What we know:
Helices cover 33% and strands 17% of the residues. It is of the alpha/beta class. It has a single domain (2-359), classed as Alkaline Phosphatase, subunit A (3-Layer(aba) Sandwich).
Amino acid sequence: MRILYLDIDCLRPDHLGCYGYGRDTSPHIDRLAQDSLLLTNCHTSDAPCLPSRAALFSGRFGINNGVTCHDGPASQLRYAGAGHSHHPEGRMLMRVFQEEGWNTVSFSGFAQRHIAWWYVAGFTEHHGSKLAGGSEEAADVNALVRDWLRRNGREDEWFLHAHFWDVHTPYVPPREFIDAVADGPPPDFPDEETVRDDYETMYGSRTPRDWWGPRWESWNEKVPDQIASRRDLVGWYDALDGAVRYADQAVGRILETLQELGIAEETVVILSSDHGEAIGELGMYFEHGNASEGCTRVPMLVHWPGVTDGGRRCEGLAYQLDLCPTLTEMLELPTPARWDGVSFAPALRAEGWSGRDYLVCGCGIYSFQRAVRTRRWRMIRTIHSGIYPYEPLYLFDMQNDPHQTTNLAEEEPEAVARLDHLLSAWWHRHCTGSDASLDPFQLQMAAGHDPDLYCSLEAMLRRLQEMGRRGQYEDLRRRRLQTRPLPRPWGNVLL
């Protein structure tokens, strides 16, 4: 057997045809889905990029592996091992394959982009140094991947990870891919009223009036710093969906290569992402900086020849890291006892699988939040609101309000109490007892690392002041000063 893992950065499942999208963004992925298992409620346990891949490749939640943020102490993996010894019950996913004789191969610049040198643990071949580390196009990745396949693909027992960045902002696919999707109807949400309301009431980087961020001022001159209307939003959707179509073409060409080599029927193909994007959820647009459904939900498509033929869908709640024990079970490989995943192999084999009762999902850039997701509800607790007017508590009815527009926390106290109990029990299960973990969010804040890595409090206050938005300036200042003194000199900003 062979395994191909296609990792498309920032891909929301609801922008794929096989997940119900109305635009023609994913013809190749949709064809693959016809003989695949689709998990429709799969979430990363920890967003965004660094925490998500730390969770997947370690098989452990961020609260246990130590990675919930992009900087500071909460960006450092608690590796299971020391010196020359790898903990046998806490091995990385790729180490399990490697120790069982598999050739493990990665085409990703992720380790360089996020200074995540642990990422290479277990990869027999790591081709990240041949890539730019986050700005490469799908065509550049594909040139390397397809060349490797033509030289090595007919060998047995390899696991190949191919990572595509094109669906990450700034969405700059070749123009023909934008044209290929622009005629289709864009999503109805956010509507004109929502965009305009967010424009007036929200603040913080990557909100409609402040998509701006000081680290991005020279990043891409074509990207506007405001989304002032539905017309602006549709232009963004065109670019995003064009990027999805471009990544889909790359997927199609790799699948064609498997067919050319005659190994398609002996290769498991998995397609997923590290996280999604908020597009209007909690007032954030085209960014992954809160614990909304848009940010944590990911596609999970598993094509297993002879097992998933004819295709099927599973509505059960699952973590992305549940893939780890699923693979070891299906391939009869050892499963490390310290992994947090639960196998969904029964869903692959059509034996019935109802999923988890609930999930706890976190986000560690722009804001620190954790969400509890059940089949009906999504409760979000804000640990640190960053430079946003986020409330301490949100409750959304996901069956009737999938875009999370109406906070029901005050109207549904019993639901809040139940979900709060689940969150508390989850935290105590991991952070108390003889094998207790230290919550990385608490370590991060104790070390003075606010979630302001990509846009500082100082810069946001200055922008609000210079634009004459006094009320929002005072609101942000109040929110931050009530928690701790400002940690640095603030120049000309009026405090």
